[in-house]
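Q: What structure does this chain adopt?
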Amino acid sequence: MKIDRTTIGEVMRHDLAAELQTMHVTVHYFQLRNVALPKQYEKIIEEKEITRQQITTAEHIQKTKLIKAETSVKVAAINSEITVVNVRWINNGFNFIRLKHKQIEK
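A:
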């Protein structure tokens, strides 16, 4: 459950209205202007936020590594295709030279 100033203010307004209703007083408007949290609670909130940021950073690093790995695989596949094409061209060139050489010998 997320607790923020709005949630705390609503709970306080509800409790205040319930208490004052016993005295026939109606609360029409309530604004919580400041929330002072205990230092220990603030420290826990800060630690939780730091942990959340560390998790987010680790997720981004993991995604980056995955993208780099996928890119490396694709580059390797393309390079192997280029090598195959080059070998075929070279092989075709040798075959052409052999054919021409045989024609010349006749």
